[in-house]
TrEMBL record:
Keywords: Calcium, Chaperone, Disulfide bond, Endoplasmic reticulum, Lectin, Metal-binding, Repeat, Signal, Zinc. GO terms for cellular component: endoplasmic reticulum lumen; endoplasmic reticulum membrane. Its main location: endoplasmic reticulum. Molecular calcium-binding chaperone promoting folding, oligomeric assembly and quality control in the ER via the calreticulin/calnexin cycle. This lectin may interact transiently with almost all of the monoglucosylated glycoproteins that are synthesized in the ER. It comes from Pieris brassicae. It is found in: Endoplasmic reticulum lumen. Residues 1-19 form the signal peptide. This is Calreticulin. Residues 196-261, 337-397 are annotated as: Disordered. Pfam families: Calreticulin. Disulfide bonds join 105-137.
Length: 397
């Protein structure tokens, strides 16, 4: 029994050593103000964040987060944490976004930086390591950004991932694995996954078209050709338009004043169009020519595409037309299972949030109904009566 307990303790110790939480923030109180730094970069009109659970929530204290509070503003706020690298282990970046203002245009993403970040000078051009999260602007842009910096250049994911655009809290999770694969989850459900090499243009293509190869001059790509034995019928040529044979010269037509009268033109019923020989299968057809490919001499595989040598800060660097977005539940870890477990807790809170919102909407509907003028109610009843009245039918004269 003693040896069994020692084994369990050992396993727990190994699990604890392997599971690391690099950064976590739930914004439960005002202590965030001493850790997060506003940018003072010149030339931008920055907005302020406030700590709130918003207008509807599951718990007024547990659900507090940072909310954008001013319309038509840039926002630039960041915090630093103990540097870490994800070398040889998964990287999980997770946070929640609540667009309770029914956002029309604005960012809901985060940027992750190395230790070179100057927090008070953070702005849109500041280099970052990873950018992740939702971005909405009108009906055409409702996507999840997944952008990695690689060798000094930002690379956007080549897939289109649609974000949530309602007013409730949603959890966004990015998992980057040491085998150069990734997953994107929304509300703990996988919405995209794949290979870093395939879904980003980090590296040159493995294959390129052989520059020395050329299509042979006698290569025939025509699937069909005109039938050389097909001849145009002798009676084919007919004019497209002819003078109207039924037209007559108006009685008041004066040739001296109006010029020589000519009948109007009409479509020729005997016109057959432009003649072309019928098509037959081309006996010399070889199919589309495919340019041969060779190994790209500029391509070199990189097994460390996933790796970030140093992550040290996270920032909210975005623009919003209509404010009201709440950011919360930040978690950076190397344990996808732990992140998923936290996610399930957050999903339970969302149900309470929706319940409160529905109750508020019902109260608002009852209020509007009570404030509706009586004469307007009478008009509505008259309209309904008119709509329901029988319609007298009349025969057309």
């Amino acid at each position: 029994m003693k040896s069994f307990l020692l084994g369990v303790v050992s396993l727990l110790a190994i699990y604890s050593a392997n599971c690391e939480v690099f950064y976590e923030e739930k914004f439960l109180d005002d202590s965030w103000e001493s850790k997060w730094v506003y940018s003072e970069h010149p030339g931008k009109e920055f907005g302020k964040f406030k700590l709130t659970a918003g207008k509807f929530y599951n718990d007024p204290e547990e659900d507090k987060g940072l909310q954008t509070s001013e319309d038509a503003r840039f926002y630039a706020l960041s915090t630093k944490f103990k540097p870490f690298s994800n070398e040889g282990k998964p990287l999980v970046i997770q946070f929640s976004v609540k667009h309770e203002q029914d956002i029309d245009c604005g960012g809901g993403y985060v940027k992750v930086f190395d230790c070179k970040l100057e927090s008070k000078d953070m702005h849109g051009e500041t280099p970052y390591e990873i950018m992740f999260g939702p971005d909405i602007c009108g009906p055409g842009t409702k996507k999840v950004h997944v952008i990695f910096s690689y060798k000094g250049k930002n690379h956007l994911i080549k897939k289109d991932i649609r974000c949530k655009d309602d007013v409730y809290t949603h959890l966004y999770t990015l998992i980057v694995n040491p085998d150069n694969t990734y997953e994107v989850l929304i509300d703990n459900e996988k919405v995209e996954s794949g290979s870093l090499e395939d879904d980003w243009d980090f590296l040159p293509p493995k294959k390129i078209k052989d520059p020395s190869a050329k299509k042979p001059e006698d290569w025939d790509e025509r699937a069909t050709i005109p039938d050389p034995d097909d001849k145009k019928p002798e009676d084919w040529e007919k004019p497209e338009h002819i003078p109207d044979p039924d037209a007559t010269k108006p009685e008041d037509w004066d040739d001296e004043m109006d010029g020589e009268w000519e009948p109007p033109m009409i479509d020729n019923p005997e016109y057959k169009g432009v003649w072309a020989p019928k098509q037959i299968d081309n006996p010399a057809y070889k199919g589309p020519w495919v340019h041969p490919e060779i190994d790209n001499p500029e391509y070199t595989a990189d097994p460390t595409l996933y790796k970030r040598d140093e992550l040290c800060a996270v920032g909210l660097d975005l623009w919003q037309v209509k404010s009201g977005t709440i950011f919360d539940n930040f978690l950076f870890t190397n344990d996808p299972a732990a992140a998923k477990e936290r996610g399930e807790e957050i999903k339970k809170k969302i149900e309470g949030e929706k319940k409160m919102k529905n109750e508020q909407d019902e109260v608002e509907r009852e209020k509007e109904k009570a404030e509706k003028p009586e004469d307007e109610d009478d008009e509505d009843l008259d309209d309904e009566a008119a709509e329901g009245a029988p319609v007298e039918e009349h025969d057309e004269l």
